[in-house]
User: Fold these one by one.
Assistant:
Number 1:
Amino acid sequence: MKKIGVLTSGGDAPGMNAAVRAVVRTARYYGMQVYGIERGYEGLISGQITELETRSVSDMIQRGGTFLKTARCKEFTELEGRRKAADTLEAYGIEGLVVVGGDGSFRGAKDLSDDFGIKCMGIPGTIDKDLAYTDYTLGFDTAVNTVLSAINNLRDTMQSHDRVCIVEVMGRHCGDIALYSGIAGGAEYILTPEIPYDLNEIAKSLVKSKLRGKTSNMLVLAEGAGNLEEIAAFLTEHAHVDIKRTHLGHVQRGGSPTMADRILATRFGVRAVEELMNEKSVSSAIGIKENKIIAMPFEQAFAVKRETNTELYNASKILSK
Ligand code: ADP
């Protein structure tokens, strides 16, 4: 393989730049030409492409967001859109593609590969950590640390005023940002979509803790686990506590990637290019399992079912008592 392309697609995540940097430098190291495609599949269809050199990705490893920009592209979900994308790749002589993105982006990569025989490698870049075939995704560690820093600040002020606080965090249908930041931040309650919870029980427990003299409590709510306003209203009414609500929002998506995300991005990037070069390999999702970098054919990766981390849930239950 002589020419490869790299793009970032879907929701942005800290560490995407570090991954693109690793892809570019690995490709150059092995003597390949590498093209950066801007705005994900949209740029692939419209030909927003520039050649990247080793120095094009200088001063990138520490930056959040994605310098290649990202987009959502409806046209690419249809065969005709993908045909235009394949034509662009052919015009540039690009034989292999690295796609940094989430589940949707991987489905697009698989379709492009199936329909037009373009070898694609997917690097999981999403703060949600909602891809079951891999233990970690790029951006998750940074997002959790951003949440943690907010929780630390909130604890200080909540403690001073004897208040209860609910922090809503991202994660779509996946509760891992809430679970990890809740445990690391010492939250008393962690509400996620994976484990059913009973607001009556939580209200009772808040009343009991007030009677014990504990006046400040922290609840971390995953966005997919309920409505922040409704939960706050219910607990105010039934537990008679002063509740402050914090919706962290997009601040969780930004920021300089942590060491863990930079290392992961680097390992993923090197492996993605090596898989493209390997004549025996097929289009695959790159991931990490038990600290080993893996490459799993897309079909197989999509079939892996998410498992609830019962050990961490148990730990959070034990420690919040
Ligand atoms: P993420 O990659 O973060 O999950 P999206 O779900 O928005 O983000 O997907 C990013 C892009 O990938 C979409 O805008 C679309 O172009 C493409 N895509 C998503 N789902 C599919 C699909 N089922 N088939 C083909 N392309 C898809």
Number 2:
Amino acid sequence: MIDPNTIKNKALLAWVDGIAKITTPDKVQFCDGSQEEADALFKMMMDKGVCIKLNEEKHPNSYYFRSDPRDVARVESRTFICSKSKRDAGPTNNWMDPKEMKAKLHDLMQGCMKGRTMYVIPFSMGPIGGPISQIGVEITDSPYVVVNMRIMARVSPKVLELLGENGKFVPCFHSVGKPINSPEDDVAWPCNPDNTYIAHFPEERLIMSIGSGYGGNALLGKKCLSLRIASAMGKDEGWLAEHMLILGVKEPNGRKTYVTAAFPSACGKTNFAMLIPPAEMREEGWEVSCVGDDIAWIKPAADGKLYAINPENGFFGVAPGTSVKTNPNAMASCSRDSIFTNVALTEDGDVWWEGMTKEPPANLTDWKGRKWSKDLGEPAAHPNSRFTAPIRNCPSLDENADRLEGVPISVMIVGGRRPNGIPLVFEAFNWTHGIYLGAMMGSELTAAAEGTVGKLRSDPMAMLPFCGYNMADYLGHLVKMGKGLELTPHFYHVNWFRKDRDGNFMWPGFGDNARVLAWMVKRVHGEAGAKETAIGNMPSYEDINWKGLDYNKDDFAALMTFDPEIVATQPLKDELYEQLPESLKIERAALLERLS
Ligand code: OXD
Ligand code: MN
């Protein structure tokens, strides 16, 4: 706990005071992010039946939460960009006039924290004091948010020291929107689904979220600050906030190359970020290390290269499908000091989810708190159930993950879930062509996203739900960012999810994706071949390291074909396409010409 009398930043104190007057909490607590503080909060929540401490032997220092079944995921339909002009929010965002939104929120905020504690969380996205890092302060009435934020961000009194008297921070207001007017209101997972708003004011660098306590709706450092607000900052200040993982590839000769990759939600970003190369490649000396699994902040440095940091300090990973087989590093990351939300509970006080083991253990309690059996016809863990795990637990954490200046980026990857017509990998001819590929990205929807399962959704740079301003202007900013660089990263499009006629995946994926990474890295250093095609440069069979994988030449040839009709499809909304920068329209014309 921080003594408010020690806080020098007047703007912060005035903001907290103003919010407290409107929301009328019982008390205000300034958080220091310490273990003692978290222990006290967990104890308070356990005493109230809000969470369960997991079996200390199986998952030390870890806790289990179940949400209200109406509050289980990000709600894109309730997420708004409130720029002064509608045009600046663009054709892909929900927009509301800032004055109108504030008036609406102001009504909902009246007394909304009654009976609750208001927590004030000073945090840094990125290493504290780093040149790419940013400071935020979240106000919340959810102790669950406090204990998650201390894993996902750097919460520390040092942040306030750095702020000093006049330092700037991004104010992040959050409330579950459920005042305690009578004892019945004091439920385990308070929320207000009928009045949920996740509002962003990019011009003011302000976030206001009310009504939901789950994930990106409530942990405001993540999608709200690190993508929506940061993308708007980046546009004004000449940097990039991307929905990208960051990893390092070490070759047998010891050379290290850093890679970022943008994939839409539910495309295995965490798995790719924590990839372990096949044993035969490891024996040769290949290593992959993790810098981050979701977000990259990227800035040009004085040497004319792009440098990236992971603004986060933890993983908020989708649990189902994660196992010691698919992602041992993720399993190790959440093996202790973690929080689990909406997974299933075993009879000995441990967690389980679909895909963790082939057979579910006996006597599970499901995410809704029911005795679970297969006959229920529903999964025991919610498909969007999560682990919140400290990044320091990741066995493959990169040695430079905490470097203030970030790591130099030589490769950028985009891709999605494409069952048909798109090859495993191809290389863009140049930066602008790469951004074009990112702009035209699409992915098949799975249950984790809102929408129809199996439908292809256009998702430019995987930023569709995360761009804090006009998507067309954002794509233009990306093109521009390549201009002044001494060295632009090589750009690639990948597809791990191609299926054959019988619906089977054609590529093993997971660790074997290291074979694709190895080719990319060699390309960057001018040491691997490629043949030019209409859509980009592609590896031949001989260009790939096949040690330990029996994958024949014909299968590879089939995997690398493309369907010109699918490639030529323009998936963007007409309104967005119209607003695109001319350079991307020229890329499109050139592609159509090459295909004809
Ligand atoms: C996430 C997402 O949770 O992209 O990271 O939806
Ligand atoms: Mn994400």
